[in-house]
Amino acid sequence: MDSRKFLESLRCAIEGIRYCINTQRNMKIHFIVAIIVLFAGILLEVSRLELIILIMSISIVFICEIINTAVEKTVDTMTQDYHPIAKIAKDVAASAVLVAAINSVIVGCMIFGKYLWFIALKTLK
Fold this sequence. Notes:
This protein is mainly α.
């Protein structure tokens, strides 16, 4: 692959991420929560494997949010009028984000739970 084509593809991809962060409220929320979670993971000294699992869970949420935005914008270009199939497409894309976010919360609770439990017990003694 030509390096210019690769760099152009990379620039477009970064622009897409930037667009999502700048225009999508939920993407901003996911981004802030991701920073907090990663900072907490480092602060609590979670294992390398646990950190990898956290990063993968966060990435899945980001991927779903990016795809959801692409679906919403594509549907919006097809019709400005209400259409039940357009609604289904948007709802299904949004449901992927919801499932990914729920998964991330469960993963976060499972990973951070033992660390926070240990801290709570240590504090109570």
